[in-house]
Amino acid sequence: MKAKIINNLKEIDSGKVKEEILEGLTSQSRYISPKYFYNAGGSQLFEAITELEEYYLTRTEKAILSGIGNSLEIDFTDLNIVELGSGDPSKIRLLLQQIPSEKLSTIHYYPVDISHTAMENSMDQLTEEFPEIEVTGIVADFMQQFKSLPKINNRLFCFLGSTIGNFQPKELVTFMRNLGSEMEAGDHLLLGLDMVKDSRVIHRAYNDSQQVTAAFNKNILNVVNGIVDTSFDATDFEHLAFYNEKKQRVEMHLKAVRDRKIRINGNQATMDIKKGDTIHTENSYKFSRRDIETIGMHAGLKPDSVFTDEKKWFSLVLYSKSD
Ligand SMILES: C[S@@+](CC[C@H](N)C(=O)[O-])C[C@H]1O[C@@H](n2cnc3c(N)ncnc32)[C@H](O)[C@@H]1O
Question: Best mutation site among 37, 113, 125 for ligand 1, i.e. most ligand atoms within 8 A of its Cβ?
């Protein structure tokens, strides 16, 4: 197996990153972008979430993925698989296992993720399991660094886990437009979407009994402390997650359990957090059948096939780019 990692994050201006975080923390409705969840500990906690009984998303998507190899109307020969927000290799493995062995050696896999540690771990596992595949890991921010994606033909973009649900509606449109202009005729997109369902099922998925999601949510403060030198103590906050039916999204927040003065940039400034104040950390939008067409339209893509489970809880949509 030929394997290498290209790190493009170095090209992102660290001053701008700090500015962006501080802007969120000091705005009237405080927020932190969910992309800051994924330091080494955050990626590990996310993996633990995917194994929880309450977190139906991964289990359901994996079951769909395990059975679609023969139904995907894609020529796997010389296929370039570009997986956005790849995380751990547990999903791509299921797809690779369904590719006939004579074609497997012609595949080039490009995982793209913001987490360097997750990328290294994933590459180590894949090297062992699929020695015949060429892998090029790209550490990059897919919101800002579309130029980092490999410019080649015959690409299958995979965007799984319903990570697209973490985008704000405007971000989703921008992301799909960028993806659409990146894609050439003959390229495909396999998109994972978590569908609207009984709100109790959704609520449980983000409020697990072992509080792994709570630990994942709170860990974002440790990441922020590392980047902007703030003095957040995660134990001063509790995890708050609920389904906002009107907006069709789960909202995750951190809610202060006591008053605190937070130092920013060492000692250069301070910020008062009052008991009950919240910091919005993530949205996870849920989608309807109609959204499948609309999302594709932003990128000039049409849905060729929609794969789903018996309860229609999750959809994997194969889109293609026509001339
Ligand atoms: C919700 S997890 C999904 C992981 C995996 N695809 C799955 O389905 O289980 C989101 C993944 O996207 C990555 N990620 C989040 N924001 C990113 C960004 N702006 N650019 C690149 N990767 C990002 C995270 O590191 C994480 O691995």
Answer: 113
As a whole number of Å, the CA-based R_g of the chain is 20
Compute, in angstroms, the gap from residue 166 CA to the centroid of ligand 1.
Answer: 10
**With a 6 A CB cut-off, is 57 part of the ligand 1 pocket?**
no
φ, ψ of residue 308 in degrees (nearest 5) = -145, 175
**pLDDT (tens digit, 0 to 9) for every residue of the chain, 323 residues total?**
589 999 999 999 999 999 999 999 999 999 999 999 999 999 999 999 999 999 999 999 999 999 998 899 999 999 999 999 999 999 999 999 999 999 999 999 999 999 999 999 999 999 999 999 999 999 999 999 999 999 999 999 999 999 999 999 999 999 999 999 999 999 999 999 999 999 999 999 999 999 999 999 999 999 999 999 999 999 999 999 999 999 999 999 999 999 999 999 888 899 999 999 999 999 999 999 999 999 999 999 999 999 999 999 999 999 998 76
Q: Whose CA is nearest to atom 11 of ligand 1?
A: 85
Q: Where are the domains of the chain?
A: 31-46+200-285, 55-198+287-321
Question: How far is residue 141 from each of residues 8, 102, 144, measured CA to CA in Å?
Answer: 8, 33, 6
Residue 55's Cβ-side half-sphere holds a number of Cα atoms within 13 Å equal to 21
CATH assignment of 55-198+287-321, among 3.40.50.150, 3.30.70.20, 1.20.1250.20, 3.40.190.170: 3.40.50.150
Residue with CA closest to ligand 1 atom 12: 85
* Residue 153 CB burial class (10 angstroms; 0-12, 13-18, ≥19): exposed
